[in-house]
Specification:
69% helix; 2 domains; 6 strands
């Protein structure tokens, strides 16, 4: 029969306690080796997380099936990643804004640090407009030259101009007002005049009678209040490096324009950018959470046990569990499902909670046995025997609860279930082996 003071009856946890005490130094060494062994994998944790926002797995979902069809049929023509630059200012049709956009486009397109840029999938409101204006200007002056050759001396200059403008308008399906405004640029013109005309067209398209294609372009990339415009860069691969480079180039272009340009901000967004920013934000939050938790842990356990050493035993063992558990983020992300950026923070808080709880159970029982006059070996074996049963039962329920989330089709929950469930298993194993091994050594 089992008694609170411990008996000679053999149980799995009594056997475990006896084994851990006999091999306490080896147990500590094994856990340290395990922690060191996973460090090369843990380094890649930041690359293994992404923003999921409740996305789901499983071909049974209509949206997933459709997305799979698109990916399989159009993988060479549809970029996997798009970065958007949002330019805001008092008036994004201004010459200064257009010069800024041109600097951004030139620097991005010429950068050798950006990989996978799909150059024919770069979109902004002005580049197609410039091309249209240039081709129309060339066409109308060519038409005027032909008209001069045909009707030389029989028609006035104004009549020949009207003929050329109307001819080009009919051939291009552009309005006479648009072609006439382009003709007014002159046969040779500088960028400033081109930017002024393009800005006027974007500011009030109806005044120039732009066609449906240009109208759609303007409404898609410029806000109705003309204080925001978008530049889109298509990339065929996701890369934090691409994001960092494009942000650096955009910031440099903005800085070179000076404070009088009227441009208020140049912001980069897109799926890669959101994932990157969320990751950095979560990492910063984890630092705050971890620091606060450690301080409170040291204070609470120190006051409870009235010991300076005990909080650091608990802290060290939790650190081992946390370090080793990071490997599950990489493994799950690689072989099971994408891991959301929030999962590491959830793993951290849960492991600190359960790890502290399990360690305190073992250490508190060890302390009770020592107060009763038992030897270090007897106290360690008894603490594992009785506290071990409690924390094993508690840990098993937590592990089962989280692993059951792995059955869901929601990516965030599936990944969280695997990562946290396995992490709690490590924390439980640490509490049952490493904690008693350390207190067996330090007494």
């Amino acid at each position: 029969m089992k008694t609170p003071s411990g008996s000679t009856n053999s149980t799995p946890f009594k056997e475990l306690g006896s084994f851990v005490y006999r091999h306490r130094r080896s147990v500590i060494v094994i856990w340290v080796i395990a922690l060191v062994a996973v460090l090369p994998i843990v380094i890649n944790v930041g690359k293994s997380t992404s923003l999921q926002l409740g996305s789901a797995t499983g071909s049974q979902l209509e949206s997933v099936r459709a997305d799979n069809v698109i990916s399989s049929q159009f993988e060479k023509t549809v970029p996997n990643s798009t970065l958007l630059i949002v330019v805001t200012g008092r008036n994004v049709t201004s010459v200064a804004t257009q010069e800024l956009i041109r600097r951004i486009l030139d620097s991005v397109n010429s950068s050798k640090s950006i990989s996978g840029l799909v150059r024919n999938d770069t979109s902004d409101v002005y580049s197609p407009l410039y091309r249209t204006l240039a081709s129309v200007d060339k066409a109308v002056y060519a038409a005027l030259k032909d008209a001069n050759s045909t009707y030389h001396g029989t028609q006035s200059t104004s009549q020949l101009r009207k003929f050329a403008v109307e001819y080009v308008a009919n051939r291009t399906s552009l309005s006479v007002r648009f072609v006439n405004a382009t003709f007014n640029l002159g046969q040779t013109y500088n960028e400033s005049r081109l930017y002024e005309l393009a800005g006027g067209i974007v500011w009030n398209p109806s005044e120039f009678g732009v066609g449906p294609s240009l109208s759609t372009l303007i409404t898609s990339l410029v806000s109705s209040s003309r204080n925001l415009t978008i530049i889109s860069f298509g990339l065929n691969q996701s890369s934090n490096q691409n994001l960092i480079v494009i942000r650096t180039l955009a910031d440099s272009a903005l800085a070179s324009g000076g404070p009088t340009s009227g441009v208020q901000s140049v912001l980069v967004t897109g799926q890669d950018a959101i994932s990157y920013d969320f990751g950095n934000s979560i990492q910063a939050d984890i630092t705050v959470i971890f620091t606060a938790a450690i301080i409170l842990l040291i204070v609470a356990t120190g006051l409870f046990f009235r010991s300076v050493l005990t909080p650091f035993i608990t802290l060290g063992t939790i650190g081992v569990a946390l370090g080793i558990s990071q490997v599950f983020i990489v493994v799950v992300s690689t072989y099971v499902a994408k891991v959301d950026f929030t999962v590491p923070a959830i793993l951290l808080t849960i492991l600190i909670g359960v790890g502290t709880d399990y360690s305190v159970f073992v250490i508190a029982r060890y302390r009770e046995e020592r107060v009763k006059g038992r030897s270090v070996q007897e106290a360690v074996e008894t603490s594992v025997t009785w506290a071990g049963e409690s924390i094993a039962t508690s840990g098993a329920t937590v592990i089962i609860s989280f692993l059951s989330l792995a059955l869901t089709s929601v990516v965030l929950l599936k990944a969280m279930g695997f990562v946290v469930g396995l992490g709690v298993l490590v924390a439980l194993s640490v509490a049952l082996t490493l904690v008693p091994a350390i207190i067996g050594v330090v007494g």
